[in-house]
Amino acid sequence: MNIGEAARASGVSAKMIRYYESIGLVPAAARTNSGYRTYGNTEVQILRFIRRGRDLGFPVETIAALLALWRDRSRQSSDVKRLALDHVADLERKIAEMQAMASTLRHLAETCAGDGRPDCPILDDLGSSPAKACH
Fold it and tell me: At what angle do helices 3-10 and 14-22 cross, to 10 degrees?
């Protein structure tokens, strides 16, 4: 199949397929005599794996490690589990950071009169040095 068909079958855009190929995440595609890329079921399966990994928020580097483990039939599931749990910890850290940002913004919005006056604690906070900002 051509790159457009592989994109439709995998849910990965043609642009991203070319990118994944350029960084070695996907093996270089076979080429027709006229230079067009061709893909088979194996490549589409790899692209689906990558797509699902990206949907779960894994960074490309971790997806590369997961792909290597997926291909390695002598792998230990503990290696896969460690990567997954490391990612869960990263996600939970990011969630906590975002909740703190939301809390700060909620507090600032509650202290803002939101009327016709120019005074605005939101802008005051944004313009303050990091040491003075509310957290």
Answer: 100
Q: Give the per-residue SS3 of 53-87.
A: HHHCCCCHHHHHHHHHHHHCCCCCHHHHHHHHHHH
128, 135 in Cβ contact below 8 A?
A: no
Terminal-to-terminal C-alpha distance of the chain: 53
Measured CA to CA, the distance from residue 48 to residue 11 in angstroms comes to 7
Residue 16 CA to residue 91 CA, distance in Å, equals 23
Q: Which long-range contacts (CB under 8 A, 24 or more apart) does 119-124 make?
A: none
Residue range 66-84, pLDDT digits in tens: 999 999 999 999 999 999 9
pLDDT tens-digit profile of 92-133?
A: 999 999 999 999 999 999 999 999 999 999 999 999 977 554
**Sequence ranges of the domains in the chain:** 1-72, 76-135
If one looks up domain 1-72 in CATH, what number appears?
1.10.1660.10
